[in-house]
Specification:
mainly beta, elongated, four-stranded antiparallel beta sheet, single chain
Amino acid sequence: MRAKTAITTFLTATVLSGCGGDGTPGNGVTVDGNDTTPPTLALSAAETGGGNPQVDVKPGDPSKTLVLRTKTASINLIATARDDEAGVQALQIWVNKKTTRCSGGTCTSVGPGLLGAPRFESTEPKQPPGAVVARQKTLLAALILKDEISQASPAPGATLVVEITIFATAANHLGAETRTPEITARWSE
């Protein structure tokens, strides 16, 4: 619970940092009703404790894999969206998971499930052309691996593979959207 509270506090601080003292966006831009381009978007993932390089993706990149060194650490996530013409209305990080257990030549998989909602998000109501809005949003989050991966070791001769897929989406105030490719954090034992 303490980790979730820290994440919520951190996310709230991140969202609020884009506002000036009077409640107006500190990094403001006026929504241009003629803009047809989506925001720029980038997503980074890094396992805590070092040892693994950070994995970065942006639209147009191939999907990438982060091979996890431990199942007890966390994955730090950073998503950043920017739109200099219509501002950033929504920034979301989506997470899904597939778990495969094999024993005696038989494998069973669970997931990935249907995605109903983002795991982390920063959104605000859409604003009309002429409104002053934030041009950039940054979302910082952490996936706690002990909540994602069973901490029990597989039985002798059995294997466990967990693939956590992560991607980000962003939308501007005119509804133009973009999405990153997936980063797959992979644990096997």
